[in-house]
Protein 1
Amino acid sequence: MDIIRILCAIFFPPLGVFLQVGFGMDFWINILLTLLGYIPGIVHAVWIIARK
């Protein structure tokens, strides 16, 4: 299942974070990072998925 989350995180980072933690603070941080730059959103999403 982590592989699916990581693939989602590469194409749409907030979706990968949502699948991992739901509507939490990490989700909103990831949306902000994705809006500020696509790469920071990907890095944050993969870090959240790999951390848990």
Note: The CA atoms of residues 29 and 41 lie 9 Å apart.
Protein 2
Amino acid sequence: MPQPRVIAELAEERLEPSDKGLPARAAGLTVREFLASGPRLSEFWTPLLVLDEQALAHNAAVIQEWATSHGFDLMPHGKTTMAPALWQRQLDAGAAGLTLATPWQVRTARSFGVARIMLANTLVAPAGLAFIASELADEGFAFSCWADSVATVEAMKQALPDAPLPRPIDVLVELGAAGGRTGARSLDEAVGVAQRIAASRSLRLAGVAGYEGSLGHDRSPAALAAVRDYLGDLLELRAAVRPLVGDRELIVTAGGSAYLDVVADVFAPAMAADAAAGLPASWILRSGASLLHDDGFYHGISPLDAGAGADARAGAAARSGGATLISAMRGYARVVSHPEPGLALLDGGKRDFPYDEGLPVPFGRAARLGADEEPLVGASVTAVNDQHAFLRSDAALPVSIGDVVSLGLSHPCTAFDKWRWIPVVEHRGSDRVVDLVRTFF
């Protein structure tokens, strides 16, 4: 592969007039030059997505400590941000590698030299398989992908280049569940997939994988029971495929950002048994939203957030010093219309902020970006259009045309794809911009 890019090179990229949210004076400057000029948040244009450096550092430490203390390797899902600088932050904090979702994302990560990647998806596109085959010539590169059917395995084998591979592609059998997403729908079917992988010369059975997050959307007893039952099935699959893996390391991976406490609780006895028996195993957590966290969906469901309830926090955070995650992202939009006392229109919408897991939550208003805020009590965003948000209240809204409204956001996985450069302030409430995060979407 070509010489990988390094994160420092991003500081030499030139900013353009088309870069959304940046001050006009930034155009033509390199990122390094712009940051050296001492930019302030008040210079930026709305709508705007802003990151919090202090919160990023805090969250990276919390999730890494939690994973390590519970016996997991952390391979955070890089699709959340597609930001190499944020990937590197977690790798530097101790993450074992990255999880990604598409061959193109894998190619992007490889261009920055990421040495260990799990593709949490099937890989059947001939071009993607050819790329991975060529990358496996680098003995320092570790790669694995998933398969959930015999048809998938056969499609992979047929699409691989005719030339012998430098080494087999590691494949994990994905177990699903009725009503879930992908994944084999029964244990017998999953074992059949494992057997077909193990019989292949170009593929190597590496372990088992699954995603429990699609089985629940809250922390109700029913959702937690469904997740727990599914994870138990995943352990059954692990036991069934162990003879096919032999004395090699067996990977077991689960865990988004919503039910990591349940994953740890269900897996703990099996992890202890493997350790006692001296069986080589790698238990991988793929939490991708934990670095950013949010003020919506994950705020309410993550066991590492106060919103999830005391019982969940007590069990999940006990071995991380009780530390909890905090939102590291916030949106800002400006009042551009106030046609009724209880209605104001903001200049940010679907093309600027996530809305699929909850609408933005208004926190406060200020006369300008970076200024002290006054809380917006009783206000809510009730709808978003492409470039507008509807701010409503039963009482008259205490906002004026031109005011800036700060917005708590829900679901970091659909926040970053709308931005090329995202400013980072030193901490919440600071006007000082200390970095620009580059995304690759």
Note: The first helix runs from residue 31 to 36.
Protein 3
Amino acid sequence: MRLYADKLSETLNRSLSAVYLILGNEPLLIQESRLAIERKAREQGFTEKYRFNADASLNWNEVYDCCQSMSLFSQRQIVEIEVAENGFNAALGKELASLTATLSPDVLLVIIGGKLAKAQENTAWFKTLSAQACWVNCLTPELSRLPQFVAARCRALGLKPDNEAIQMLAQWHEGNLLALVQSLEKLVLLYPDGQLTLLRLEESLSRHNQFTAFHWIDALLEGKANRAQRILRQLAAEETEVIILIRTVQKELFQLLQMRQAIETQAIGNVFNQYRIWQTKRPLYSAALQRLSVPQLRHLLQLLAQCELLAKTQYSQPIWPLIQQLSLQCCLPQANVALPT
């Protein structure tokens, strides 16, 4: 069974599974999910807990002994196995699938790991593993869903934000949901009536959003100029290495140019498959490909080359204005052409 983290509590109230897969890229949701499972398990007599890290030094015999060797006087126990980032592979997957198939009834197994690629989800070992487990999806909410996420968190705490307050909370805490939880807890204490407005937020909170080069790239692909500039300003304030931004956008522009040339003779769906574009990212790439022509993409690459030259040779001349110019030109609605389907 697969479910999203916000539905876990409902499932736990109905029954407790023998195996849980907590997978994703959002630390807050992963932590909340593991604690919710542990609380419910302790209510049902799982009083002992053991933790293992699935790295090269792990002794699997110890894990099997822990999961199978139950004596008359042993307590029911929770066994957590944490997989390092990018640690999932076929060998580990088969080991975990084998382990889940031989669990003692008095053992609750919780496997924690990062977000899986689509190719990993489609492997035989993962299908075997997920068929035996409750899979809790702990992904960071998409930007479009973040206001809904914020509103749900506020309702759970008895807070009553207006629409502008919800938007500001989402904007100020994007990429840092742990800080969002802390901010909401602070607001509960400050405003017992629960009413949240822009004025109250500005008086009580500061920005906690965390942006990376990939947030900037998504804004460029989607053509959101204001958002792209806001992200750039924060990256500049944090003294992000310009070369990191240049290399990241360079890869995307070259790929967009190749894709733009390919869709002249192929259906866009085939091109997406060829370049292994995730389903969630396809609307962003579609927007960029409709907006940017081949000459425009070549012009952007030339401008990017100027950025790199300036960054590597003219240390006294500021580079960020040129990066901002590149960002704006990438977002301008210049072409808007129909793509073959």
Note: The CA atoms of residues 39 and 46 lie 9 Å apart.
Protein 4
Amino acid sequence: MILNVLTYPNKKLYQRSIEVVKFDAALGELLDDMYETMIAKNGIGLAAIQVGRPVRALIINLANEEKIQDKKDLIEIINPQILKKEGEVVFQEGCLSVPGFYEDVTRAEFITVQFQDRAGNTHEMDASELLAVCIQHEMDHLDGHLFIERIGYNKRKKFDKEFKKSLKEKSK
């Protein structure tokens, strides 16, 4: 089922998500619905809080070499913890919760993350470049933060101005 994606400035997006403790059918259904929603909205990552569920779960599905988002490449990450960060990389980020706005964000280039899968099994994964950026972006959501908080004062002022302008245009 395709879920509603919360968008800025919805206050729920600033809520810190709680740890998942029940690895049951309801969690599996949420993850499946998140996948359908992410694909329908042309996203590559989605955190549960973005669909109004304040639990520490996120999904990522990057396109493969053929530029296809294959479901077999889907990564489900529950209760993530970054164990190691190295380097710096700048990527232009966007967000389903901040539609239509893209800006360069600096994040760690390499990370090691520990997490659980939908069955509760613990895994450790090294990630770099776009995958590392996506994991950090989605983990920010779990901590109640949006990427626009990481773009610097001047770029944030530009965003606020564009956002207010788009609200005025929508109300016409």
Note: The mean pLDDT is 96.
